[in-house]
Write a structure and sequence with these properties.
The chain folds into 2 domains: 119 residues, 3-Layer(aba) Sandwich (Rossmann fold); 97 residues, Winged helix-like DNA-binding domain superfamily/Winged helix DNA-binding domain (Arc Repressor Mutant, subunit A, Orthogonal Bundle). 41% of the residues lie in helices and 22% in strands. It is built from 8 helices and 12 strands. The chain has a 5-stranded parallel beta sheet, with helices on both faces. A 4-stranded antiparallel beta sheet has the order 6-7-8-9, with helices on one face. Helix 2 runs parallel beside helix 3. The two termini are 31 Å apart.
């Protein structure tokens, strides 16, 4: 996963980042609330770990700003020294998905992260053919059809199309797409993503007539979305 860690304590952030990266995650660390909010407005993350006490902002400012900035729902785990009932209730009401008090336990942190992902991520569709009417996608044989007509796609084009449909409605940064589909670092040239998205849009005919639209979001990336009134 790509994880955004907001933590102003250098020793604590270094330790948590080490744990997360040892577990195979990509962790970006931010030391201030403003730095964190700027980053999440430009990039895509799978999970946010938020400290509540910060040098420039308070958690009850950061969390509502995070939810207001994004039109996609990111799981949020608050980690703080404040563990009174009113603190926990307040954070949950502001949009936190879970709450953990310091000192941080490695085992508890990963247990809570796993539980969060089970609750917030859509269940995997094990059906042989995925239905995004009028598109049908068969991952096993890399086959994609629209209204029964097969659409020829190169391997990366198919992988990108599948990734976009599975994440329909979610705002995806170019870096996130590069890492997820190409398995490469997101700081490389993102023109590869733009070129392939352009091909996908043309080959699949992603227009309101098909009930789908692939939008470019300025300074961020792309979002595949259902056109209202076209849902099956």
């Amino acid at each position: 996963m790509r994880i955004a860690l907001l933590e102003d304590d250098p020793a604590q952030s270094k330790l948590m980042r080490k744990w997360l990266e040892e577990a195979g995650h990509n962790c970006s660390h931010f030391g201030t609330g403003q730095e964190f909010l700027r980053a999440i407005s430009r990039d895509t993350y799978d999970l946010a770990l938020l400290d509540w006490e910060l040098p420039d902002m308070h958690g009850d400012e950061v969390l509502p700003a995070l939810r207001a900035k994004l039109d996609w729902s990111i799981p949020v785990l608050c980690i703080t020294v404040r563990d009174q009932e009113e603190d926990v209730v307040g954070a949950l009401r502001l949009g936190a998905d879970d709450y953990m008090s310091k000192p941080v336990s490695r085992a508890e942190m990963f247990a809570r992260i796993d539980a969060l992902l089970r609750r917030t991520q859509p269940a995997k569709n094990d059906a042989p053919v995925l239905d995004f009417s009028p598109y049908l996608i068969d991952p096993s044989c890399k086959n994609l059809t629209c209204n029964g007509r097969q659409i020829p796609l190169a391997q990366k084009e198919f992988e990108l199309a599948l990734f976009l449909f599975i994440n329909a409605g979610r705002l995806l940064s170019r870096k996130y797409i590069l890492e997820s589909v190409w398995g490469t670092r997101g700081d490389l040239n993102t023109r590869t993503v733009d070129t392939h998205v352009s091909r996908i849009r043309a080959k699949l005919g992603l227009t309101p007539d098909t009930g789908w639209r692939l939008r470019a979001i300025y300074r961020h990336g792309y979002r595949l979305e259902r056109v209202r009134g076209q849902e099956s």
